[in-house]
């Protein structure tokens, strides 16, 4: 162990290699709060060549290397195990280029998402990737986890936004393909392997993002719908008539009532007695005509009974109010809250929510201490669930996990929509992927990281 | 050799295994016309289990298996080598499901693209994948080659349209993940490996496509632009003001003059003395308002000098006329025509065309027998080049290849935008991918197909 530290200090410089008390406690893990151990060492390289050197040394020594970005993950993917070296990308930061002709930007992995968004915007472009932790999440982690977020329905997951990638492999080989071309079928598209594999196959160092035009209008409405079939029809219509919403966020009444009754939320856009709620956002390119089209769309939906009521945001404050309801931060005040991020076939999401709620109630009967709140990016088949129940002796989060993930399996859903597998969902990967698939994942891992040094114990 | 044929006949039934003169000459290869040898045998399975059995047997025997779809490829990717067995997917055909709630369709690999498009349309959806050979190309081949086509600028390559995949591996393992969910981060996204790897890592048997709403309006214009910077600005504006064109097809004057002067074309939308030409198509969702918005967009571009002239198609016949010019079939009449499909950084395409033209002229001076025509899906960075020159003794297509691909390398482009590598471009893969990348491709090939039986000699 001492050898690798000494070797890293020699090659990278002593100031880049921290150990023991020099390592801040935040490097123990991500926002899931499940990281418990400090790494053997923390390195914070300032160049790709340094990252390559560090990996080569770790690979030779057979020492685990755990990449860390903004540590905003929710699946334990960046938690270092005991004896592992944490490799923070935080000093390998910055926007290298915005290419206005190609409509691309090239960004270092350690760049905070919001910094990249702002650089794109100041060049007149939209970097469509967006999520709540934009201020601290880093683009390398976003791509390594194939991050989703609020606008996937319009622009796709992180994967859909990446044109080129530079990755350092376990043995220190630097794989550079900073492609800016939309069409490129020259050989296997290797970057796809590294997107969404959570740092287990290589460490992403540079990203070429495809940029989009900045939207010229944003319309936002908060609607109430009588039932789930109406929600599905409303979505279909929004896709046909508006060319697709940029957000379509559904909230079940248990979510809506709890959040809007809580003093931190401060607004209740519609009465709490409706069947379902949906926040619809449409970003368009005709500032003059779009608001009227949006209103016409909602008027038609109201007339046909797909929605029972709707309010359109008249100013930025109301937009923020609507989103604050949807963000549901009030739920964070609940004791030992368990958050789920699953996906399900579109047609079955309401049935899933009902089945899941029923099972939870059967085990932890209704009462002031029992909460299960359902909401999500339904246009992407993505449901979030917040559960807070009064555990009896010997019970814990694991029991809620077992119950919810078993229901996901029964409904042929995915145990991870956008947060990844990390360590927290590893035991449930088999609920959504077959043994044959998991065997192929292991074959790929062995092919690219034969000594198993890259983020070991994560995903598979 | 006889053993494998006997084993296949035993397992699949004798009628499914053709040899010698029973094999039609078309199974020698794809539309590149470079396939010269009949396969050892041709099998045409009717079920995934049969495909799995055939692969298991071939793998045990170490016999090459070459998947064949509609044989419309242009890179020799489906040409069987001597001693290989051709596996035609043509009997494994049909649309299994259109799921209107999920907005997906599940299709067998041997289904012609046009059949799938029609099934989607009759359920009220658009399957956005579209290309000239839609009538005979099969969806399995489309996905295996990550096909592009005319509407990539709006909907992405085949990869962007695939949500789920079933693949048979070299050893006969069936890898089924018929995912319909837009967000699914449960483990490595294995399907990405098989998309675009041209049947070298597995044989695709089923595909889940993401469907889109049918467009409600289509506007088409043929425009002339003074120069390439104006074209780039026009594209940027179309993306901002129209929310993106559905086709943006640029033609250089050498292309336009030859094609519109040829008797088979029968129309010349604009005079032949402009700097560049572009066919712009916009598909929208507001049948009432879109035509006027399109006209306003063109009016603004005309006023600002980005275009010098434009005609808007007033009826379906004119739409067809415009597209017939763009398709440039007149070029097929030229002797020993060499077609290129390359991509280049957006900002450099015109410079590339000039450099390439100059090099061709330097070697084969201008004259009635020398033609080089440039056109392409410029919004996707994709340029096509048609070259017909009078070879001297000892010269041939190879010399044109060398010249063009060397120029692509100099401009940091890709030797294949949408047609793939197959056999024809294999020698040039290193022009666009690094030795480190090609080494990783070989590692993946060895991990998934250790005996090297799947479409050997293709891509890498």
Automatic annotation (TrEMBL), chains A, B:
Q: Which PANTHER family match?
A: D-2-HYDROXYGLUTARATE DEHYDROGENASE, MITOCHONDRIAL (PTHR43716:SF1)
Pfam families cross-referenced by the UniProt entry: FAD-oxidase_C (PF02913), FAD_binding_4 (PF01565)
Q: What is the lineage of its organism?
A: Bacteria, Pseudomonadati, Pseudomonadota, Alphaproteobacteria, Rhodospirillales
Q: Can you say what this protein is called?
A: FAD/FMN-containing dehydrogenase
Reply yes or no: does the keyword Oxidoreductase apply: yes
SUPFAM superfamilies cross-referenced by the UniProt entry: FAD-binding/transporter-associated domain-like, FAD-linked oxidases, C-terminal domain
Its required cofactor(s), as named, are: FAD
- GO BP terms, alphabetized: respiratory electron transport chain
Q: Which family does it belong to?
A: Belongs to the FAD-binding oxidoreductase/transferase type 4 family.
Q: Which UniProt keywords apply?
A: FAD, Flavoprotein, Oxidoreductase
Residue ranges annotated for the FAD-binding PCMH-type domain, each copy included: 35-214
Q: Which Gene3D superfamilies match?
A: 3.30.465.10, 3.30.70.2190, 3.30.70.2740, Uridine Diphospho-n-acetylenolpyruvylglucosamine Reductase, domain 2 (3.30.43.10), Vanillyl-alcohol Oxidase, Chain A, domain 4 (1.10.45.10)
A Gene Ontology molecular function term of the record? oxidoreductase activity
Q: Which organism is it from?
A: Dongia mobilis
């Amino acid at each position: 162990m001492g050898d690798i530290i000494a070797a890293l200090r020699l090659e990278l410089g002593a100031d880049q290699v921290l150990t023991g008390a020099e390592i801040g406690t935040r490097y123990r893990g991500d926002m899931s709060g499940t990281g418990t151990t400090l790494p053997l060492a923390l390195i914070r390289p300032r160049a790709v060549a340094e990252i390559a050197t560090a990996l080569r040394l770790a690979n030779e020594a057979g020492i685990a290397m755990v990449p860390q970005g903004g540590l905003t993950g929710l699946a334990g993917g960046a938690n270092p195990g005991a004896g592992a070296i944490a490799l923070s990308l935080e000093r390998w930061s910055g926007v290298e280029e915005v290419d206005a002709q190609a409509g691309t930007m090239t960004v270092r992995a350690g760049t905070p998402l919001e910094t990249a968004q702002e650089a794109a915007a100041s060049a007149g472009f939209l970097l469509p990737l967006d999520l709540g932790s934009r201020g601290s999440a880093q683009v390398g982690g976003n791509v390594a986890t194939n991050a989703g977020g609020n606008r996937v329905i319009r622009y796709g997951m992180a994967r859909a936004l990446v044109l080129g990638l530079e990755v350092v492999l376990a043995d220190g080989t630097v794989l550079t393909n900073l492609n800016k071309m939309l069409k490129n079928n020259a050989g296997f598209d290797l970057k796809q392997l590294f997107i969404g594999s959570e740092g287990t196959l290589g460490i992403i160092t540079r990203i070429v993002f495809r940029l989009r035009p900045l939207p010229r209008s944003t319309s936002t409405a908060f609607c109430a719908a009588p039932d789930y079939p109406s929600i599905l029809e409303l979505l279909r219509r929004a896709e046909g008539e508006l060319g697709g919403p940029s957000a379509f966020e559904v909230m079940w009444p248990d979510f809506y009532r709890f959040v809007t009754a809580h003093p931190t939320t401060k607004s209740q856009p519609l009465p709490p007695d409706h069947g379902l709620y949906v926040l619809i956002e449409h970003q368009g390119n005709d500032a003059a005509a779009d608001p009227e089209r949006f209103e016409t769309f909602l008027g038609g939906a109201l007339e046909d009974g797909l929605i029972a009521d709707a309010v359109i945001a008249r100013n930025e404050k109301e937009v923020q109010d609507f989103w604050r309801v949807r963000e549901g931060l009030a739920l964070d005040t609940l004791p030992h809250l368990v958050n789920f991020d699953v996906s399900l076939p579109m047609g079955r999401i309401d049935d899933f929510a009902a089945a899941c709620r029923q099972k939870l109630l059967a085990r932890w009967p209704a009462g002031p201490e029992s909460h299960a709140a359902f909401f999500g990016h339904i246009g992407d088949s993505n449901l979030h669930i917040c559960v807070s129940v009064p555990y009896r002796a010997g019970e814990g989060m694991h029991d809620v996990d077992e119950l919810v993930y078993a229901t996901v399996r029964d409904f042929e859903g995915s145990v991870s929509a956008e947060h990844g597998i990390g360590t927290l969902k590893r035991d449930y990967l088999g609920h959504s992927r077959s043994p044959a698939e998991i065997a192929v994942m292991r074959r790929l891992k062995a092919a690219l990281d034969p000594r198993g040094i890259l983020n070991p114990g994560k995903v598979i």
